[in-house]
Amino acid sequence: MSETLLSSRNLAFELYEVLDAGALTQRERFADHSRETFDAAIDTARSIAEKLFAPHNRKNDEHEPEFVDGAAVLIPEVKPAVDAFLEAGFLNATREFEVGGMQLPNLLSQACFAHFQSANAATSSYAMLTMGAANLIEAFGSEAQKQRFLQPMIEGRFFGTMALTEPHAGSSLSDIRTKAEPAADGSYRIRGNKIFISGGDHPLSENIVHMVLAKLPDAPPGVKGISLFIVPKYHVNDDGSLGARNDVALAGLFHKMGWRGTTSTALNFGDNGECVGYLVGKPHAGLSYMFQMMNEARIGVGMGAVMLGYAGYLYSLDYARQRPQGRLPDGKDPTSSQVAIIEHADVRRMLLTQKAYVEGAFDLGLYAARLFDDTQTLATAEERQSALELLDLLTPIVKSWPSEFCLKANELAIQILGGHGYTRDYPVEQYYRDNRLNPIHEGTHGIQSLDLLGRKVSMNGGAALKQLVRLIQDCCQRASQFESLSALRQPLEQLLARLSAVTLALLGDLMAGKVNQGLANSALYLKVFGHLVIGWRWLEQAIRAEQGLARLDGGADNAADRDFYQGKLQAARYFLTWEVPACHHELALLEARDDCCLAMQDGWF
Amino acid sequence: MSETLLSSRNLAFELYEVLDAGALTQRERFADHSRETFDAAIDTARSIAEKLFAPHNRKNDEHEPEFVDGAAVLIPEVKPAVDAFLEAGFLNATREFEVGGMQLPNLLSQACFAHFQSANAATSSYAMLTMGAANLIEAFGSEAQKQRFLQPMIEGRFFGTMALTEPHAGSSLSDIRTKAEPAADGSYRIRGNKIFISGGDHPLSENIVHMVLAKLPDAPPGVKGISLFIVPKYHVNDDGSLGARNDVALAGLFHKMGWRGTTSTALNFGDNGECVGYLVGKPHAGLSYMFQMMNEARIGVGMGAVMLGYAGYLYSLDYARQRPQGRLPDGKDPTSSQVAIIEHADVRRMLLTQKAYVEGAFDLGLYAARLFDDTQTLATAEERQSALELLDLLTPIVKSWPSEFCLKANELAIQILGGHGYTRDYPVEQYYRDNRLNPIHEGTHGIQSLDLLGRKVSMNGGAALKQLVRLIQDCCQRASQFESLSALRQPLEQLLARLSAVTLALLGDLMAGKVNQGLANSALYLKVFGHLVIGWRWLEQAIRAEQGLARLDGGADNAADRDFYQGKLQAARYFLTWEVPACHHELALLEARDDCCLAMQDGWF
């Protein structure tokens, strides 16, 4: 049977031939691990994802959560799936053994979680949201808060949410209006309305811990006046038992185009003036706490987009191999048999494009996950800081590139299935609908582009950018040892040189105070920067494929490996010669500071 | 109130400033018409579309047709809408006065119909399918068939379908298996299964006339053995009254991602051996009949894609003007008011891109409709033939370009609405789902690309292509009289020159027998050819905008017109300087006969 969630061979290539997961086991934190323990975790993830997550993916879509008596009701298949996930320890995959974790590298945790994301984006979200909320409390909460709220989350009894967005404040968090008034007992009374809160209600856990952004009475205006609060659905008594309902009400559910199985909620805090919240960390520091956890969340969103793309790619590949239709252009004898559509050049193009997008983004997501491990476990503080800077720089790409291009992959998967792909009898249309969320949540595409050009490339004197340039140059240097890769390397070198120059010029504009003009075409910049990064990752994969081919002898038992590496080289060729050079037009617009869009006036539309 | 279906000002610009609809009234067939009668028809269309089509567009989606006791049941709002459409005469807008038509030019008929397509793609489809079927009988049916089947269609009592696709034969019609056996009475007995038959059952008309492709017993293999049959749902007696049910059964309904209000049916013909069909025209000529009607159908599909794009563009434009969010990059004072999101450069980019795609494709669709009028009403047979050749050449673009780029426009409309755009509380997500059908039906994108490069550009010694090149050169020549347009004209001239050379080279390959290689990158060719055509149409619009501006005096009462023309110039600038030059990379791949996708092997995926 063909694989449906991801290619195990490709995952092994990433872990052991590209990203050297084995080297992580040399680090003290991961010393008890080995390829065997890594592979065992992956096998468990695949098994649970296939058996308990994938089977209800369509049902999640067809029977979206319902609002009944003030609560969200889900289909019954979700809880056993999530329970098996918890039982197998994936919620705490990266936590230490002592607290019941698996002490796995983030790289492996993401690799395991990718299976759940591919099998069922909606059901896996409940786990991801809980991980995000738990990590916030772990990083910034008090010991008492950890005891009361984090420990039950680790045990899987409490789930979590991130409650940021308000009706009038989506991208502009600076404008949130939710208030937090200090109470006599040291807690706070929260009052306000939040929307689009994923997982804001569900029957999967005993309690739900909302991580809520709100403003204290003495808050300075803007983002520097935002504080972070723990607001539980049920009060938690000192002995850990559950108390009465807190004054948090489910006001309603949003009905989405896709990703329907995850509740998207409107929550009212403090309608009765009795919503108790607990300040996390210092006053007014809430947004900075959120941002410190953003890398992980955005890697998660990016990987979610990748895995929807991956699922669609594998499905359409299998379909293209099975489905006979038509004949090749030069074989028009109508009495001959029809060929499988994978034989048609344009279907191959659509499959190769999907492969290049999906496997390129998959590599980047795992690369970022490994970088996250570096931020935690490299030997010196300086090395860890350096890794963090690079991760900060790459995060907008890790989040946005798959959101755009793996959605495009899903569009191609539908096209390969033709009329069938447009029906709900096949899964690809759901992947497409599900994936359309990803360019919107956790910072829209536009926000990512401003983050990249307006903040990340210039931070710490451009240190991260310089680091990235060195890495790409090093990759090109190694690629230059393979004559076969010269046609792939050169477009990347050209893009790097020109983008570097444009970056300096744009940063010069920003420093000269031309802020609106300098950032006006940030979307183009994001696109080109993303293609540079994915092009680099494909060149890296191509090097490893050449090395893999060189290791093989000519035996017939190597045929599958040889095919695998050839496919990698062809996908790298596609991306580096079909996609990367197309960026020069966008670079020309950036170089010219083209103001076509900026100069457009409201009245002219 | 802002307009929701299309911009009336833009439609008037197209009809009276770009496409010179007034000149059509000089032709004998349209001599009774005038701008007043044209505008009256448009006003009626807009009014019915707004009052009866738009209000149930969402309900069509939420309550898709149900299969009950062997029949399709629709929501009750569809029939009154369709009845009003019929009552107002739009089904026969182009037919002669004597048969109850309005004798309008096709240009005006399409302009009227565009309102219905924008308001409700699904409900308007029933009318479009009936027009297509009626036109087939009118063009190729016998007098008796016209009396029995066409006349009730003209009267709106019978509706029609096009029944081509079979489970194993979608794009490859050559492989259909439906059989037609001659019966003693001169009719035929049809047996076979068809799928994806839009409008294959519904309660909107007394009878449904299926136009069915099937093979006679002595049929040669392949497309040259396909015949066309009339197969009514109910028998029709000699006096025109309805008889018993014919042996055509609704086997089931397909459940689609979008466009849900139009039934997509599986039909079984002759399960009991008693399905009566009537041969249209000559045996084995069915596919050529279908193809002769294809231009109209494909203009209709293209315009449908445009209008979904248009509806989304107008909705997101209105939203962007109303929705406050954030501040400009250089105005970060958090105590200042939030600005409407239309002020953000990236939102402007997304709006301007939509405008360029939607209004460019709208112009092309109407241009093609006017060309269709030329094929019918130009003075000499030679002129009519020449118009037909150009229309044949443009048809793959008219169909495919909006299907790809107005879908992209819908994606941008969702993005502008952010999280709200992803919910079913707003219409834009439905437009996106509805529009995803268009690159699939009436010939997939891949089929269009093969039609263009493999047939259309070389037909009649390349006569149509030469005609198009002359038209574009003439447009550039006229544009060169405006200094202000030189930056817009030059990219088009460069694209034209290079694409012309590539075309010759590729046709050389095809003539040399390198068929698979020559057609391998036809998707790239389609993209570039489409951008050439839309670029030409934008330059034409820019010329008319400059002429319009020159006509205005400086008075304040001209402000709206001045804004309108400025917007046209800015959108033309966007398309010709942001989109057209980006095609050079695809041209380079075509020039190089790049075989990246063709060389990919099945085993390498």
From TrEMBL, chains A, B:
Keywords: FAD, Flavoprotein, Oxidoreductase
SUPFAM superfamilies assigned to the protein according to its UniProt record, in alphabetical order: Acyl-CoA dehydrogenase C-terminal domain-like, Acyl-CoA dehydrogenase NM domain-like
Segments forming domain Acetyl-CoA dehydrogenase-like C-terminal: 469-601
Positions of the Acyl-CoA oxidase/dehydrogenase middle domain: 162-269
Keyword Oxidoreductase: yes
Documented EC number(s): 1.3.8.-
Gene Ontology terms, MF aspect: oxidoreductase activity
Name listed for the protein in its UniProt record: Acyl-CoA dehydrogenase
Species assigned in the record: Pseudomonas zhanjiangensis
